[in-house]
Design brief:
- Helices cover 0% and strands 68% of the residues.
- The chain is mainly β and 146 residues long.
Length: 146
Amino acid sequence: MSDDIHVDAAIELLLILSARTHLVSTLVGTPLGDRSVFDVDGGHFEGPQLRGRVPASGGDWVTRTAAGSQQDVRLLLETDDGITILLRYQGKASQRADGLIRIEVAGSFEAPQGRYAWLNSLQAFGLGTPTQDGVRYQFYRFTRDR
């Protein structure tokens, strides 16, 4: 690997997302761990270039093992100007030494051509935390200084 390659990168906030969820079902003792399925009841999101609501759609499939939890999430974002965007992300959740839950995810968007098509080329990453009625994430993207 060459030491000559250097990329200056910074991160930029894409959006803050809050979603309400409820438990649909739990399967205990599967070969891959305990599984829980959560429906998304709604929510909202806001960022520098987009904002809107999370309609009641999509879900969060969680697999719990002794090492922590894995997430597989799909949900819709409906922008304030009426455009629907699919957000898919996966990640891991674990309990920190202070007892708080830390969720780390990576995801991507599927947006129609037009104002939000720039989202299609992004790899987003986020940090989340459970809330009383669901979850809250901060999603970011890398930007390169030229």
